[in-house]
Each structure stands twice: as structure tokens, then as C-alpha cells.
Amino acid sequence: MNYLMTKVEMPLIPVIAELEKNGYLIDCGFFTSLRDYLEPEQADILAKIQEIAGLEFNPNSSKQIAKLLYEALSLPIPKKTEKGSPSTDEESLTLLSNENQVVHKILQYKKIAKLLSTYCKFPLEVDYDLRLRPKYNQIGTVTGRLTATNKIQTLPKEDGYGIRNGFIAPPGFKIVAADFDQQELFVLASVSGDQAMLEAISSGVDLHGLVAKKIFDLDCEPNEVKRLHTKKRNQIKAIQFGIIYGRSAQSLAKELSLTVEEAEGLVKAYFKSFPKVEAFIENSHIFAKRNGYIVDVFGRSRVLPDAQRTGRSEFGLLNASLREAQNFPIQAAASTVTKLAMIQCHNHIRESHPQIKMILSLHDELQFEVPDEEVEHFAAELPALMTDLGVESFGFKIPFKVTVTSGQSWGSLAAHQQPSLESAK
DNA sequence: TACTTCGGCCAC
DNA sequence: AAACGTGGCCGAAGTA
User: Fold this and answer.
1) Do A95 and A135 belong together in one domain?
2) Closest C1' nucleotide to A363's CA
3) In a structure prediction context, what are the per-residue pLDDT tens digits for chain A, which is 425 residues long?
4) How far is the CA of A78 from the C1' of C15 (A)?
5) DSSP conformation class of A408
6) Residue A240 CA distance to nucleotide B4 C1' (Å)
7) A148 and A90: one domain?
8) Cβ of residue A91 near strand B, that is under 7 Å?
9) Which of A16, A35, A196, A309 has the CA that lies 20 to 30 A from A66?
10) The domain containing residue A266 runs over which residues?
């Protein structure tokens, strides 16, 4: 039997069962108060929009918005949807927001509508004990990641109202969260075997800052790049994420307000610094073209029949496949790393901390509900539990890094006091 | 009423 | 026309 089946997926089943049994405690009062605050706001904004557009106008309808903006008001169409209709998404509306006051109001309305329709209904979805119990799907993605119901994986971070504050620990308990730092970049460095990137990561400094310093030849410390050269650091950040996603120079250029040539130059400089990253990407493309599938270091595979297309008219399909081939070995291996960490945490809790509950798994993060008196101890144990995974033979020669935070709610997690790096060694 | 498609938007 | 990978889920509108 192969590794993934015997050491990952099968042992994970009882962990997921626990996760589903535990659920996440909800502060229902928080959400009903927020709803009661937002509903009149929404009604006010709707009234103002309807003054301009007519009484039966519904800003929840993209069709009606398009009709109003592009027909009645004859505003220019910034972009179209996949099917060719004039787009009314946030990006388009923001571009038009100076043209007409109603656009601004529609944007405000959409923000509130999203919160009310999607993120204020948890009180209706909790069980008798006020716990939300998402269902995890172990085979919900092609890459090995978990999927989950109840929007537990898509709670907004910067919504202005602190939605995450409504996800709480009971009295006498704290939420303890553990995140892998830059998990996918660690994976990329490891599976590509790029010595420069591995060293950059091992150094423990801000990775985007360090790479920006290297590529732009900055003369400050890597950890100061974020403050002193924010823009340059953001460019590197976009490039590094772009590599994980197979992003084109063209779309990088658009996001960073650069010319395509400038973006291409940056990517070139990046690859010059990390040659094995470039080779790894090329090899992923070549493998997928040759074989019609791709496989990661743990043996997880994905069929990619479109990678073998050759026709001119199939170029789009081919390229989409090659991006998938490029992303898969990174995202898939990262998902296995998280699953291994889940299994270790679960086993350790079962043996030593019967009061602790695992309550969330979110791609590169795990959360636990921990009795106050055990928080210190468990927080200190977590990094080793999640990083000593026995995966050296799969190419992971440098340890992953984990950051632990804790707090009364998901929205108020704060850095946990950690032992210094020196004493950890 | 039930289901599907579309446009849109939230996360990692 | 766009050109960024993996998803869930919302309301509107159309269809069975």
C-alpha cells in the first residue's frame, strides 16, 4: 500500500470525525446585533439608489446594474464577464465610481449585502449547543486540500466589522491557532531543491524582503525592506505567489502597474537568483506535456489530458493545463504536510490533552480550543508537533516554521509569547 | 417547487 | 477577452 493511503488519508479519517464532532462555538448575539445594525444601513442606501434608478431597482442583480450603468447612464464598459456581458464587479464599479454618485452607493450596498446574506446567518446554522459544525470533504479538491461547508474557510479578514470575532472559545478556554509560515514557498524551495531559496528560508528573515534586497540590490537589512521599500517588496511578493499559481507577466504587470517588459524583467531576475525554481517549473510543464498527468513528491497525482493538446485553437486549454501542472506539486505537497500535522496533533491530544479540541483546519493553519491552564504548555508543544513530520526522505531537508497565536476569539488572536530562537536550538 | 447557470466575492 | 492555482456559497434569473 502506498504512503498517501496508509500514512495520510486513512489515519486522517478519525481526525476529521473529531473535527466535525467538535465544531466551532458561535457568539450568536454578536451576529444578531451586527445584522440589526446593518439592515437599516442597507435600507438607507437602497432608498438612495432607488431615488436615482427607480423603485423596483434591485442592486443585488448584476443584470439590472448593467442596464442602469451602461444603457440608462451610458457609462463606458470597463470589462466584460466570461460570457461576454458587461461586468458589474467591484473592479469595474470602482473604475466608474467617479463618473456617477450612484455607482458609489451601489458599491456600499454590495459590501453590506455580502455581509448580511453570507456572514450574518450563523445563528440559524448552529446546533443546539451553539456550535457550527462544518462538514469536511476529504476528497473535495484535486490537490488534496480539504473543502468544508458553512463558509468556515472563507470568513472575511478585513470586513470592517470583525466577523471573525463571532467565532469564540467558551469561558475558561482559549482559541489557540498554529499557522505554517509561507507554507507553499517552503514546499517550493524543498521540492525544487533550490539552494539559494532554501538558504533564504533557513535564515529566518522576512523572505519577500530578503529576495527584494537581493534582486533590487537594496542596502538595508531584509527585515527593514517591508518598511523602507514597501513597493519593491510587494512586487517580489506578487512574483513569488505568481510562480505558485503560474501567473503570466502580463497579469503581474497589471497588478503592479508596470509595463509587461518591466514585469518580464523582474521575473527573469527572480529566476536568475533561483535557477532551480525555474527548472522545476519547466520540468513540471515538460512532464505534463509528455505524460498527460503530474505527480508530487508524496505520490499524489492529477490527470491533465489538456496538457497534451497541440492545436492552435487549443492554446488556451494547453496553457491552463500547464498552470495547473505548475501549481499542483506545490499545493498538493503542502496539503499533505498539513494533513500529517493534523494527525500528529490529534494523536498527541488523545494521549496527553483529553480536554483540548481541534476545531478548525484551514489549508496551512490549525485551531484548537484549549483550557486556559493548558494554553502555555500546548502552545509550546505545537510547533514541534507540526514540523517533526518525518518527511526528510521526500525532500524536506529544512524544517517548516509554525507561528502560534491565541485569544478569546478567532478575530482577536495575538502573537503568543514564544521561546527565543536561541533557546529553541 | 426544484434545479441549473451566471455573475459575483469570500478565503488560502 | 483574458491570460492566477484550489475551493464554497450567495441572489437573480431562467428552465423543468
Assistant:
1) no
2) B12
3) 599 999 999 999 999 999 999 999 999 999 999 999 999 999 999 999 999 998 899 999 999 999 999 999 999 999 999 999 999 999 999 999 999 999 999 999 999 999 999 999 999 999 999 999 999 999 999 999 999 999 999 999 989 999 999 999 999 999 999 999 999 999 999 999 999 999 999 998 999 999 999 999 999 999 999 999 999 999 999 999 999 999 999 999 988 989 999 999 999 999 999 999 999 999 999 999 999 999 999 999 999 999 999 988 889 999 999 999 999 999 999 999 999 999 999 999 999 999 999 999 999 999 999 999 999 999 999 999 999 999 999 999 999 999 999 999 999 999 876 554 444 43
4) 31
5) S
6) 38
7) no
8) yes
9) A35
10) 202-273
Answer yes or no: is A35 CB < 7 A from strand C.
no
Residue A142's nearest nucleotide, by CA–C1', is C6
User: Strand, coil or helix: what is A187?
Assistant: helix
Sequential DSSP letters for A263-315: HHHHHHHHHHH-HHHHHHHHHHHHHHHHHSEEE-TTS-EEE-GGGG---GGGH
Residues A94, A233 within the same domain = no
A145, A15: one domain: yes
Sign of CA dihedral A210, A212, A213, A219: negative
- Whether A328 is in a domain gets the answer no
> Is residue A243 a part of any domain in this protein?
yes
Residue A288 lies in a domain: no
Shared-domain flag, residues A236 and A380: no
Strand C nucleotides below 7 A of a protein CB? 1-13
* Gap from A223 CA to C12 C1', Å: 48
Nucleotide nearest to A148 (CA to C1'): C8
Domain-terminating residue out of A124, A144, A160 = A124
Output the nine-digit C-alpha cell for A370: 484549549
How far apart are alpha carbons A387 and A180 in whole angstroms?
9
Helices (H), A126-229: 183-192, 195-202, 207-216, 222-228
Q: Domain containing A61 — which CATH number?
A: 1.20.1060.10
A143 touches strand B (CB under 7 A): no
| Same domain? A15 vs A137 | yes
A116 CA, C9 C1': Å apart: 13
Number of domains, chain A: 3
CA atom of A319 to C1′ atom of C4, Å: 12
Instruction: Say if CB A75 and CB A96 are below 8 A apart.
Output: yes
Do A161 and A116 share a structural domain?
no
